[in-house]
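Why this split exists: single-chain examples teach little about how molecules sit against one another. For that reason, every record in the complexes split bundles all components of an assembly together and asks for one structure covering all of them. Below is a record exactly as it appears in the raw files.
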Amino acid sequence: MATRVRAAGAGAIWAAAMLVAILVAMAPATAGEAPPRRVVSMNVCTDQLAMLLAAPGQLVSVSALARDPRVSAMTAEAAGLPVNHGRAEEIFVLQPDLVLAGSFGAAGGAELLQRLGVRVEAFAPETSLDDVRASLQRMGALLGREAEAGALVAAFDARLAAVPRGRSPAPRAALFAASGYTSGAGTLPDAVVRAAGFSNVAAEAGIAGTARMALEKLVVAAPDLIVTDPRYAPPSLAEALLDHPAIAALTATTAGAAVTDADWVCGSPRTADAVLDLAAHRTGARLAGSAAPTAGGP
Amino acid sequence: MSDRPPLRLLAALALVTLLLFGVSLAVGPAGIGPGESLAALFGRGNPAAVIVLQEIRLPRALLGVMVGATLGLGGAVLQGYLRNPLAEPGLIGVSGGASLGAVLALYSGLAQGVALALPVLAFGGALAAVLVVQALAGVRGGALTLILAGVAMTSLCGALTSLVLNLTPNPFAALEIVYWMLGSIADRSMADVRLALPFVLGGWALLAGTGRGLDALTLGEDAAATMGVRLGRLRLRIVLGIAASVGAATAVAGSIGFVGLVVPHLLRPLVGGRPSRLLPASALGGAAMLLAADIGVRLIAPERDLKLGVLTALVGAPFFFWLVLHARRRLA
């Protein structure tokens, strides 16, 4: 502890003094494994896990994105909490004993906080439903709320079990976002698509991770369902692609259409809502008698 | 030199353009065979192939012809009228002005409500850019002042375009700066073709009638005036024609440089240096060059969305170097 204070506080006496104060506050947490009392989250996904699990008053700030309905499924809960913008300075003055961060984005801020002696726990983006369960349990352990986390995981599994059984062969869904990006194997959206009883067209085409899919390839893949993202208010050419007449021609004849929402962005219990919403499209009229792919293929 | 149009040259250029048009329809990631493509183009066969041909590849090939011919024709007219070998829509700020107008129409949401707002604002931007550059350089301005004014206008419009795109609340807008600077005709639709076509055709009609006036102008303004050319009218025709056609082309394809510079230079020796004969040849040549560049974009990096302006600049910039050296030798 003392060496950390010396290293971090070198050159600025007041900062060292502040650090000592914080470390004193943190001491019980590190010594007796007592739960943290001032938790700050700086990532929209950790925001939601923390809001679901934290004890009253335990979470002192979430990121500003938690209030953005496009990416956050818990805007109402976030409205009651102070927000931060992921900057080390504003988070440091909150005197947190635990900072929750994403392993991507604002990493510089998290790194700086770590050097200042603040405990930072980074969460990687979830890429499967098992990752979602693991993240919930890890968050529960970090916040000292293991029981609550176990209950959430059980509820999550119960919701997923409620997804109506799929038929065989599975209908085929294509994820198509702005600029023609799609999510292939090894991504959370792919897991959602499969859990909802669809086969993911991008994964069929050998795409792993997030990559572009040519509009032509989407058309000849002849998906049964095209899943696009919601549009931002002032238009952009990237999103205009989603309204291309070729896609309109597909959805007018052989394919159904669905739009994602904030439930799709982060791995959380809300991921089950995304699965259930998508599964509801499986019973859509268009899919009733749809055939296997008809085009020549790539 | 006869007065007859260079029919052989025009026929050859038309053939090349037609051929490239066909190749453009046959090339794409969907991997549809040539025979199947042809059938699908006319609505027969596999429905998915019909959609690919009619809704994705046909508008792309049509825009290649429209945009390329506009730039080739525009370059030939501007070089003849300004009697400046460096004049070109991209270099004298017209494309930049059109981009700015189009960006304002698109990202304000105006074009969503009123589709015509896009070509009209692009036309307005192009017109304003031409008028300002001409006012700065003077109607009889030398090569240097005109190019300086054009570069300044292009930089200003580029900066304002970037500013608008960065301030737009849509997070995707800022990523589209590169599209407006370098241009692309990937994944456009027949709606874009229909939107731009009236303006492009109107501009071509205005510019097509300038051949005789430009011929006379090669002898100097006074001589042209004595031959009955009304210079004020000629100028109005050219400014409106360029703004309408280049404006609409830029609105649906971004600004694509160097086509209007290279094509007239390559073809001028073949038509005996007469502007009236250069105009149709340059239009066809421009269409061929743009189609070729667009095919190249698809072959070089099929999954990467390479921009058209990258390829045209790769061809055009070395040509520009050659022009500079040529001009220096002539001055020395």
